[in-house]
Amino acid sequence: MNTPELRQACARRLLAAGAQPTQLTAFVGLDGFVDEIIHVVDKRSSAESFQRLPTIAGLAARLGAAAGQSANLELVNHVTKLGGNGPIMANALAAFGLRVTYLGTLGYPVLHPVFQDFARIADVHSITEPGHTDALEFEDGKIMLGKHYPLKEMTWENIQARFGRDRFAAHFGAADLVGFVNWTMLPYMSRLWEALLRDLCPQLTGPRRKLFFDLADPEKRSHADIRQALELIQNFERHFDVILGFNEKEAYEIAEVLGLPAPAHTPAGLTELTAALSRSLPVHMMVVHPVAYALAGCRGEVCLVEGPFIAKPFITTGAGDHFNAGVCLGKLLGFSPELCVLTGVTTSGFYVRTGQSPTLANLADMLQNWPA
């Protein structure tokens, strides 16, 4: 599903929103990375010119051939930028016009310079040093090599000591959108969620608000840890409209944890899987985003929306976080699941082409002039 009529309807809704996003608030966390986007050299023709290794399979072959011997791979920095699921998503929400408060691992006691521009458009707070990611990008995907040790300092105890329990409770209890992302790399996130469910959620008043979760590639975590995290996420549905996001790989990993059959990696197979996941995890809405399209599942009902696929993107690291920001914007504006997913794939599509987070006007323009 992605017709010209649907795109025009989405563009009209975004333009009609006007200044509404500037009246919305978001409280997002809790990670933070310095990302180096890196190309791997295949052949170098001069000091200034080289051919990039185009595929992950090519890298795997190069590494495999070095077994029992040795190899020397040249890495070229393409760009250094703010990273982490939370900062990228929050930065995209701020570009839409939302009033964003961010809490994460961005440098302590002084903010790392890579986050300075982010701090100009959002209310940014940090309680520890950032992680670091070498993101090796290829035409068919990316390999993320991370140094995560500072993230163990992101605990409920440190949040209360360095940010403040009352300040956290005020944002958690009032923001139109709350987002907790990168559970996999934050070893004490589940303990934090337990504390929030026990100590803060019973005190919440007023209308239901939106709460977004992204586990972020949980393959390295045990099945027991993942099941506990999923149970905690479902418990938040008592207090919020919960939105749960997966990429394609994560969706199949979660299915394995839940004991669900794994259908083929096709649009029909992923539609079947999304329906099964949304029945097994009865949250308000689930979204699954492969590269070329995305799906939304609501208690077994699924819609699929094609995206503006590009074979050779300018950047891919952060594409999923931009998709998530677009989906959340759609939910905040009262969009249907189809329009939420369309807003998500358009946000991601704009970002991978330009390396920039889009405004609402950028989204409307792209919807009205859809790439071939």
List keywords for this structure.
UDP-N-acetylmuramoyl-L-alanine:D-glutamate ligase, alpha/beta, nine-stranded mixed β-sheet, 372 residues, five-stranded mixed β-sheet, 24% strand
Commentary on this structure:
By secondary structure, this protein is of the alpha/beta class. The chain has one domain (4-37, 81-368): 3-Layer(aba) Sandwich (UDP-N-acetylmuramoyl-L-alanine:D-glutamate ligase), CATH 3.40.1190. 41% of the residues lie in helices and 24% in strands. The protein has twelve helices and 14 strands. The protein has helices at residues 4-17, 56-65, 85-96, 116-121, 156-172, 189-200, 223-236, 248-258, 267-280, 319-332, 337-354, 360-368, and strands spanning 25-29, 33-44, 50-52, 75-83, 99-104, 123-126, 131-138, 141-147, 177-181, 209-214, 240-247, 285-289, 293-298, 301-306. The strands form two sheets. The protein has a nine-stranded mixed β-sheet, sandwiched between helices. The longest helix has 18 residues, at 337-354. The model has no long low-confidence stretch (mean pLDDT 95).
